[in-house]
Design goal:
alpha+beta; two-stranded antiparallel ribbon; 2 helices; 4 strands; about 50% helix; about 15% strand; DUF5808 domain-containing protein; transmembrane helix; transmembrane; membrane
């Protein structure tokens, strides 16, 4: 039951428009690094308030730059 309550709280935080800045989701209280977009049919996005997702985003950008210059 506690698992459902936690998921319910996370879903409520996710649907709060105050945590969305355009296409970017930023919520320090949400422990998830990757969250569904506001419309779940559109896929997933990073929680840009999480330090791990910021590291992942920087890593992806560096991979793209490295691919562009070295291949």
């Amino acid at each position: 039951m506690k698992q459902k309550l936690n998921q319910h709280i996370l879903d409520e935080m996710h649907k709060d428009l105050g945590n969305w800045y355009g296409p970017f989701y930023c919520n320090r209280k949400d422990p998830r690094g990757i969250v569904p977009k506001y419309d779940p049919m559109l896929g997933y996005t990073f929680n840009f308030a999480s330090k791990y997702s910021l590291l992942a985003a920087v890593f992806i950008v560096l991979l793209i730059i490295a691919y562009k210059f070295f291949l």
